[in-house]
Recover the amino acids of this structure.
């Protein structure tokens, strides 16, 4: 095994170790450690991606001395390393972009604790991406839940505590369902590793034994992860949780945490759950319906919302609906489109949250539409970032949002006729609805306001510069992803059969 | 003729009789309580104005809310009950299709469990099969689990850690009053509890127990010590700094030890860790050291949970 | 209904407890009762796992008298999973309780509905204050 093949394991351990060591450090050093860890994870994941994507290599890495069904293991392929690379970069940019707010919202003594949550969040996301073992996945799901709760409540106001408790309640129901699904799976197969569990399930289906438990396991695991990622009927916690936390937390929560669960679900669909059998087809249909409904309802709620940050959160509900719709199409193209949208939505959402925070700061903290009038002139960089993010959400050509919408539409052509028509109509309506609320916002921030133009009242020049730099980098990445999409799509297409 | 105590109302017997009826509580007002919260005065003009504005619309607003809420709640409740019944039936049907309880031929008793039992002693040297499974075969899970405790402890600290400025006013409220029963009992019990905890941890690979249960026992002993002797005495060696350093050191050792074994395992290198003689105290390779680390982490976490809940600072 | 419903008492009890706990977690407006529901839910899964690990007439998975025969011991895997799960549920309950304490300190009630009510009131007050402030500055 070459050194590069060890890198995914190094990434997980490094992020956990930096969390442990940050417990003794001051807030400033914890931040330095966190940023250094993210850069290291990014570089190592990029090198792994380079190796795996070039050779199409996919391998398992034993965590210990014992082979497959006995020890823990992680599995590394092109898609996994692509996801790790993009997650690390999005987290780095979100933390950079939210640096000024982190300093303002969280007091000095608790700063290192906040960065511990961020470190462990990265560790759990990496573990969810790479793990090949269901129980490891459960443990890291819980780490992810607790650290996400820590990120939400770091701001320490009453409003945020209520959001955190609502988030925890829904999340814990999700993990409870996942755990009992896992126990049932263990009861009928006796395996916790993904591939042996699949073999066991397929044998049961062929023998005709345990047919009801198999379908119930599929329902429980899918619904559990669906609740945790904010699939439509279980989305009630999203606007609260994303709308009031500090902007860096909101960006990370909406662009990464829910995506970690979705990626795990995609892995389960491809590696464990027998989605190609008859009950699996029905689950696909259910996911498709929920996804499409979520696309509509999320956008309509966003239109009705006055608070700009809650509006962006509702738009997350709609975008997660897109991803589940792609899964529900039950074709390889649909899953590829979902995977692409995971990356593209991550970039767009963190850009939107960070630039919206910049706009709000330049408008004396007003969150409503009237207050934000003319904010685009007061904070030019944030205005441009918000515009780029909105245009990408709507599906402007050359931006990454267009590519993912195009991929969804293309994937729909390969699906069954009814699904194809529904998906096309849903995409069209959702695009119009997106345009309604995002364009309205963009028009508002570029409506001239009679108050004075400059609002350079921000202290802490370095952090403010970081915010601008992160906004510009995220906008640039969206354009790059939009124009160079064939490269990423190529990696996804080549890696898809190795993911399963 | 019976003698009548002139001071019957205040006598001990009367208090006892009242106490049995639940009318009198000897501990009332004597136990520690939360400090009373001083209400902040709000006297600024703008707030008064807002209050007035609010009061004008309040009745209308709240009544409407209440009506909407009650209808919504009814529907919510009904749907929730239906959902609950549905899930119960679904799960019961599922369970009824599972293999029989206690069946030796059930699918989960397969080659995985068989190897843990048959090869466990030879490969890891631990007599306790569960310990050898969670700390050697599936050690990555267990490391994640220690991190769950760690992240929960940091979250609780982040929430409840006091800011330092309110500490001075409230300090006197939290001092435990001298208790005739608690202190002598604690003097005897605390050493016994802690020694038992250490025994459970050290024999984790030989008998039932291990880092988690032993750590919880030690944590309980420390909490009893704190309750009996107060923060000042406990804080001498269990200060926040010491607890942080101990936790970080044990987790770091755990992290590096397991990383070494993962790295050598995945790269098929020879590991220097040997199982040792089964049954001896220092056998079973890393398991005994990992148990000690886990025990320390669990004990420190339990203690800091208690401190955070009770006062917010060490 | 399958055939094992009359032999799998433990599993039946655990799924019923699971739903009871889940419904408490979801429906109770009192935060402490929510946490109790959470603990019931988690404990029921451990009951389920422990029941699945049991094999009739076999012994606890600790080597006795040097016997290393698989037919002498019960399945050790569910026990390990329960051990891991308990630690997770302890951490989660502690976090929920800390949140409850913080909310109680702020709002002096444990009822989530009342807290939501107070919050809504507070929010509309804040909104009025903010818009008054900005409008006042604008008129100057």
């Amino acid at each position: 095994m070459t050194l590069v093949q060890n890198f995914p394991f190094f990434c997980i351990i490094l992020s956990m170790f930096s969390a442990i060591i940050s417990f003794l450090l001051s807030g400033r050093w914890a931040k330095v450690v966190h940023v250094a860890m993210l850069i290291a994870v990014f570089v190592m994941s990029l090198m792994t991606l380079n190796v795996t994507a070039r050779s199409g290599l996919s391998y398992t890495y034993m965590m210990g001395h014992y082979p497959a069904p006995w020890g823990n293991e992680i599995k590394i392929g092109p898609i996994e390393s692509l996801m790790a690379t993009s997650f690390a970069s999005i987290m780095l940019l979100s933390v950079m972009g939210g640096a000024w707010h982190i300093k303002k919202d969280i007091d000095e003594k608790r700063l290192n604790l906040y960065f511990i949550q961020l470190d462990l969040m990265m560790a759990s996301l990496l573990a969810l991406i790479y793990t090949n073992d269901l129980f490891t996945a459960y443990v890291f799901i819980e780490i992810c839940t607790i650290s996400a709760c820590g990120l939400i409540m770091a701001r320490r106001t009453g409003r945020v505590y209520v959001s955190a408790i609502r988030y925890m309640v829904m999340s814990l129901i999700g993990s409870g369902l996942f755990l009992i699904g896992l126990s049932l799976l263990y009861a009928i197969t006796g395996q916790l590793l993904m591939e042996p569990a699949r073999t066991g399930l397929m044998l049961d289906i062929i023998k005709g034994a345990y047919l009801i438990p198999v379908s119930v396991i599929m329902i429980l695991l899918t619904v559990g992860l669906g609740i945790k990622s904010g699939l439509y009927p279980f989305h009630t916690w999203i606007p609260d949780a994303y709308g009031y936390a500090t902007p860096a937390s909101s960006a990370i929560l909406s662009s990464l945490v829910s995506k970690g669960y979705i990626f795990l679900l995609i892995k389960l669909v491809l590696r464990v759950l027998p989605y190609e059998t008859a009950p699996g087809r029905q689950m696909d249909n259910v996911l498709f319906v929920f996804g499409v409904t979520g696309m509509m309802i999320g956008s309509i709620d966003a239109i009705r919302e006055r608070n700009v940050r809650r509006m962006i959160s509702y738009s997350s509900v709609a975008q997660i609906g897109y991803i589940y719709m792609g899964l529900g199409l039950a074709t390889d193209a649909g899953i590829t489109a979902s995977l692409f949208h995971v990356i593209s939505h991550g970039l767009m959402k963190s850009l939107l949250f960070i630039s919206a925070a910049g706009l709000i700061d330049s408008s004396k903290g007003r969150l409503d539409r009237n207050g934000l009038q003319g904010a685009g002139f007061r904070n030019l960089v944030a205005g441009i970032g918000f515009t780029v993010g909105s245009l990408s959400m709507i599906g402007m050509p050359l931006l990454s949002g267009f590519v993912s919408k195009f991929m969804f539409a293309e994937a729909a052509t390969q699906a069954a006729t009814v699904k194809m028509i529904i998906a096309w109509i849903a995409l069209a309506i959702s695009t119009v609805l997106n345009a309604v609320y995002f364009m309205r916002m963009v028009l508002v921030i570029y409506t001239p306001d009679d108050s004075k133009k400059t609002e350079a009242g921000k202290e802490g020049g370095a952090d403010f510069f970081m915010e601008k730099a992160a906004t510009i980098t995220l906008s640039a990445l969206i354009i790059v992803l939009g124009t160079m999409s064939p490269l990423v799509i190529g990696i996804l297409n080549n890696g898809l059969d190795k993911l399963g | 003729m019976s003698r009548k105590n002139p001071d019957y109302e205040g006598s001990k017997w009367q208090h006892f009789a009242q106490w049995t009826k639940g009318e009198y509580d000897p501990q009332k007002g004597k136990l520690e309580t939360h400090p009373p919260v001083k209400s902040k005065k709000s006297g600024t003009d703008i707030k008064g104005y807002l209050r007035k504005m609010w009061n004008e619309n309040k009745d209308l607003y709240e009544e409407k809310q209440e009506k909407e809420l009650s209808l919504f709640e009814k529907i919510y409740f009904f749907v929730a009950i239906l959902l609950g019944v549905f899930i119960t039936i679904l799960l019961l049907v599922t369970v009824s299709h599972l293999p029989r309880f206690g069946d030796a031929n059930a699918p989960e008793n397969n080659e995985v469990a068989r190897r843990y039992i048959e090869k466990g002693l030879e490969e890891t040297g631990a007599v306790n099969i569960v310990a050898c499974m969670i700390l050697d075969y599936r050690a990555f899970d267990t490391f994640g689990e220690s991190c769950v405790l760690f992240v929960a402890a940091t979250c609780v600290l982040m929430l409840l850690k006091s800011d330092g400025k309110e500490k001075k006013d409230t300090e006197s409220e939290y001092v435990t009053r001298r208790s005739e029963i608690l202190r002598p009992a604690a003097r005897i019990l605390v050493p016994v509890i802690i020694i038992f905890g250490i025994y459970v941890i050290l024999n984790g690979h030989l008998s039932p127990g291990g880092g988690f249960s032993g750590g919880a026992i030690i944590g309980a002993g420390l909490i009893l010590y704190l309750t009996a002797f107060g923060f000042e005495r406990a804080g001498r060696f269990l200060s926040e700094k010491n607890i942080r350093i101990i936790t970080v050191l044990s987790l770091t050792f755990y992290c590096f030890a397991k990383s070494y074994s993962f790295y050598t395992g995945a790269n098929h290198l020879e590991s220097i860790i040997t199982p040792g003689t089964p049954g001896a105290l220092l056998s079973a390779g890393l398991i005994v050291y990992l148990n000690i680390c886990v025990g320390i982490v669990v004990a420190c976490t339990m203690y800091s949970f208690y401190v955070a809940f009770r006062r917010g600072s060490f | 209904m399958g055939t094992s419903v009359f032999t799998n008492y433990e599993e039946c009890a655990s799924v019923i407890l699971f739903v009871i706990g889940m419904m408490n977690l979801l429906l109770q407006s009192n935060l402490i009762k929510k946490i109790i529901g959470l603990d019931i839910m988690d404990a029921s899964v451990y009951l389920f796992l422990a029941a699945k690990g049991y094999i009739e007439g076999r012994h606890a998975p600790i080597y006795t008298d040097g016997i290393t025969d698989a037919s002498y011991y019960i399945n050790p895997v569910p026990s390990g999973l329960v051990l891991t799960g308990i630690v997770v549920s302890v951490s989660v309950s502690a976090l929920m309780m800390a949140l409850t304490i913080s909310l109680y300190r702020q709002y002096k009630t444990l009822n989530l509905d009342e807290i939501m009510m107070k919050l809504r009131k507070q929010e509309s007050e804040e909104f009025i204050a903010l818009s008054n402030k900005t409008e006042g500055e604008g008129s100057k």
Observations:
- The CA atoms of residues 64 and 72 of chain C lie 10 Å apart.
- The interface with chain A takes residues 2, 15, 18, 21-22, 25-26, 31, 34, 38, 41-42, 45, 48-49, 52, 77-78, 81, 84-85, 88, 91-92, 95-96, 99-100, 102-103, 106-107, 112, 115-116, 119, 122-123, 130-131, 133-134, 138 of chain C (CB under 8 Å).
- The first helix of chain C runs from residue 9 to 27.
- The mean pLDDT of chain C is 84.
